[in-house]
Fold each of these.
Amino acid sequence: MSKTFVLAPDSFKESLSAKEVCRAMEKGIRKVFPDANIISLPMADGGEGTVDALLSAVNGQKVDILVDGSLENQIVHTYYGLIEDGKTAVIEMAKANGLELLSPNERNPLLSSTFGTGQMMKDAFDKGVEKMIIAIGGSATNDGGAGMAQALGAKLLDRNNQEIARGGGNLSQLEQIDLSQFDKRLLDIEVLIACDVTNTLVSPNGASHVFGAQKGASPEMIELLDANLTHFADVILKDLNKDIKDMSGAGAAGGLGGGLFAFSNAKMVPGIDLMIEFSGLEDKVKEADYVFTGEGGMDFQTKFGKVPYGVAKTAKKHQKPVMAMAGYIGKDVDVLYDEGITAIFGILAKAQSVEEALLDGAKNIERTAENISRLLAI
């Protein structure tokens, strides 16, 4: 009797998409179980790859669009998704304003803006969507969602009644928010923020202090960005009567979470929970003999809403073994064994540079899947 494998990995960042990871896993498994019933479910947690994973799960439609990138005069050819008969848009902010779209020397959160994300949202409104899922992981920005709001018609005005320039470095000039030309459709639809980040907007646990450095901010820039987001929140409270400063999740994506709370009626949901629902993971896991998952790096933080944790939690309900793979295995990873993961396997065959490891991702995953399968076949 053939075995059933459910493959539900995240992408391996900068190496393979979740779909490519599934393909490599399947190749390895079939070397041992050629007749296996293999169900591939590429997953995501609200970060990079979310729109592709959702479109794959429900056979949605891809919408190509040109938008503004994170920096001035940067144009990005990107896309978002339509699912549920075109009634729901799936927008991944990293597809327009993501960190991976900028080279390391281009990264500057004083200048980067979420304007392109707002342009995708506006295009989706023009197509008549009634619901929006916005995945906000992987951002290059720290503007509190100001650019997104500007793209949707909000006027962010300085003391001279002039529009402030884009970027987190210019928020200190903001005196008034004028919504007379704002696209009110954002207030009339359901907006779900897919994210696993619970940081507040400002303070030592806020967007700038926790995530600013990886976006290119120096220690001095981090202090400035945090002060600017504090000022932005104060003006939002004054003009929009919404207090976003200490809201859980407001600091996600350089404060885009807070901007969405301020300019819409958005609710934040764990991205992995959305993926589990749309992919039908639980029903498929019920029929599985083995579940394979993985992500680029696994450590104690995997427990806080990452794909392997969500997959393991689902499999544990049905007492299914879960084999997890990772490019690297970090601190306190053993906490995951209590959450439903049966075993964790590093995929590297030898000591090599990060660049080499990223290039060898598919080969390493295939070999690891084969070796795991050989153990399972005993």
Amino acid sequence: MGENVILEIKDVCKSFINKKVLKGVSFSIESGDILAIMGPNGVGKTTLLRMITGLYEPDSGSINRAKVASDENYCSVLFEFNGLYPTFTLRENLTYFQNVKRNTTLPLSDEALNILKKLQIDNELDKRIRFFSKGMLRKAAVARAVIDNPRLLVLDEPFDGLDIESHSFIVKYLREWAKEGNRSIIISSHNVADIDRLCNKVVLLKDGTVLRNTTVDEMKRETYDGYILCIEERDKDKLEKCLKDLNLHYVNSEKNVYGIEVAENDIIKMLSYLKENDIIVVEGRKRVRDLEEIYLNHYEVR
């Protein structure tokens, strides 16, 4: 296993009551990576996460985990539920989780207080969890998950039910957390927009096997198909005639600026034609489909 590899999955198989759930799954994650495991319900995402965290053992194949320093823990988990005691205060919750693994009775550490400050809930330390809003609860759950300094954080549907502000804040915090400590995150989520904003790598599962194992950027590059030109409308009739001659149509319009799609092979000819006809191109950019569209195409959902 490479020096920077945090987790290596090799040909992992898992069955339940003669039903094969995972059929030879392989991938790895390195320090600093945020990797998404994606796929429809029933493809084995939860089973795979439970094996990564040690709750299940594979029937065959191997799960190789990096060694960690004495002041680190290998893995921490945040599933859909917050895992906090509602009648405890935030301080009591985090003090308990801080000490339970270390078998100590120490007060909340400076490192834990710094985490709460970054999450902007340090002023809520002596407030009972049952009185927290959903956003505050999720921040507290994130603090609980990272308080023992894990090298790998496993998240399962971590953003359900959050308002936009809390959602955006936690996504930003997790990106910075992974980067600053050379840590890694594995996330399973049905929200493709979350994956697009948070992750740099993605594993697509289908029928218990790996359909794709690549980077988010590479998936987008593979599906880029030409350009969108934004054209200023001065003479609408003239513009429509030019587009008709080139067999092109508007894809959008806003404040007298029109967007048209142009294939890569046609871009030079198109720009020359527009210039000859005194039509101004305000902006040109590559057309890249968003991750949700790419995801649906991989699973042949229309």
Amino acid sequence: MFFLKLTLRNIFRHKLRTGLTMLGIVVAVLSFGLLRTLVAAWYAGAEATSSTRLITRNAISLVVSLPTHYKQKIRQVEGVSAVAGMNWFAGIYIDKKNFFPQFAVEGAPFLDMYPEYVLQPAERTAFLHDRKGCVVGRKLAQTYGWKVGDVVPLKGTIFPGNWSFVVRGIYHGVDKKTDESQFFFHWDYLNETLKATVPRRANQVGIIVVGLKNSERAAEVGRNIDKIFKNSLAETLTETEKAFQLSFVSMTETILIAVQIVSFLVIFIIMAVMANTMAMTARERGPEYATLKALGFPPLRVAGLIFGESLAISLIGGGLGILLTYPAAGLIATELAKFFPIFNVPREVITLGLASALLIGVVAALVPAWRAMRQPITEGLRSIA
């Protein structure tokens, strides 16, 4: 109790210095948490993937389509449980700034392969029976105020024309990792319209989603699919859904590395500031530590006072920084919802934040504590005016 009381009194002996040091730690831990959350958001799409799905696309490029008859051949490959074609639509809702992911999908097989998109049975049935029906994510519906039954107009870009869809269902994610900002409509509607307007673009899909009976055979099934279409006019590249998502992340890998370096650099800088603060404190209290040792306090107890003060300052500042991370992340998530539909603070970030605060406290106290232990009593007492 005496040790704790003495530590707390020492902390607030210089209120301004302690306050500014804590503020620096708060800012450092908050910055660290937000930067790490940003990195996690970048990888969110890959982390939310399933090991039971493969993605087959054109080997040349993702922008080159595949013939729809490929689906039938893929369905016959051993180990394949389901197949569904998809197309990226990229329509404009009222204004170009209103960006959200839009996909033309094969309704029933697609929903069966993506159980993470939870839809009410009645809404699922309504969607499957309405050629112009669409399903939207909960967050997307909240953003634009859509309700079941509303008509959503889109102006085509990749597929020119004015398109209209009726909201037949609003899905929610099975967990926080599920993207709830997407827009799905029937591929048949898109294809029938293309047959009437641009026949040469009909009967093609951007990618083919492949369901697996056994995820352990993913590599084997992928190779067998690509063998079928080898030396054809449209060769394929089949990869796991996670690898497919990571291919997009890799385009910005340099930025991600820079963000991660900055996040740790922030901690290093505040560690140096904290170390300087504790060194100043230890020098000022040299006579006090010498007096304590003269009264019988062992050197380890004196070092414990320094460590206790340093840890208390860093952990209080770190705790406040972690608490502020959640509301700050919420504000950022609102502003960057179009680019990062999943922007949640992972538990790992909180753990790293606490570990960083603890590390700052320990490292900052190492040298001052060592000097206080080694300093002769006579030398310390000699400095008393």
Amino acid sequence: MKTKILPPTNENIEYAARILKEGGLVAVPTETVYGLAANALDKTAVNNIFKVKKRPADNPLIVHISSINEIPDSINIPEPAQKLMDAFWPGPLSVVLPKPPEIPDIVTAGLDSAAFRVPSNPVALRIIKSAGVPLAAPSANSSGRPSPTSAEHTAQDIGGKIPLIIDGGHCTVGIESTVVRIQNNKVHILRPGMITVQMMEELGIDTAECAGIADITGINNTKENFKNKDPMDPRPRSPGIKHRHYSPNAEVILVKSNKHNKPALEAFIAYVKEHGGDRVFAMVYEGEQNMVENAKAVVFGKRSNPKSLAHSFYSCLREVDNQNGKTLYIRCLDEKEMGSAVYDRITRAANNKTVYI
């Protein structure tokens, strides 16, 4: 199959909508990452998402709609969820709600809940509206790979497997949405993103503190140990929290400093110089790249600016792969500096491989 990469003209938006309505797949841009979209009401089409991505069947999908008014009337929306939607939709926030009967079980991995999101990307909204159906749309990459933030990234992974990629340019956010669930009238974060606990609490919304799969901490998330599964039901309620994610072909190793008498940057540069070599890369922050020796530098973004880091992270991982990198060392700052969303992504990309120097 030849994959067309087309700009978001009105004609091409209608073309994408026809493919979706007929049960096909289309890669669409959102503000977070590019999504591999199918009609969420068509279980055969959704099953093809899993086949193309080689995605585990127990990893639920997010349902994308163009307006809060498209949430089925059968769903009772809790008050905290309504507040979040009013404040952050359209935007990078997914809300887990009871599953309506019209959503096939394959979308939710058999769960009794479904995650909904209204993206803010105007191209995505035009495609959803034109298709006239909700779209199930996980990231448009091979499962486990770095998420695509451009049409080029998308084509690298699934080109030749789908008929169309709509090129909406580089994603403005660059990492996946925050996913939340409401329990006992409190918000539980299932996956961290750029909509943070601090932002929620500023709205007067209660957040909950309880044990779960991921320990989410940091300057942008003021509570610890958010719950992303039920004690009686171990299945993940959100994508991106169970399986290894976001990893390039290169081995990713986080480097942290535990020496109080040596600056973290100085220690990192010395470590890379000693352990570098052919096909070794070092991910550093803006202004640090000229210090790297015995490795190729990749510029992460501006230090202590989570938005900058999120925007460039997946592109950096793919740049290393494009240059046939073997090892990537990442100078890992304190989670409070990086923000919990970025910290979560880099630890998953490294599969928790960390060295302390």
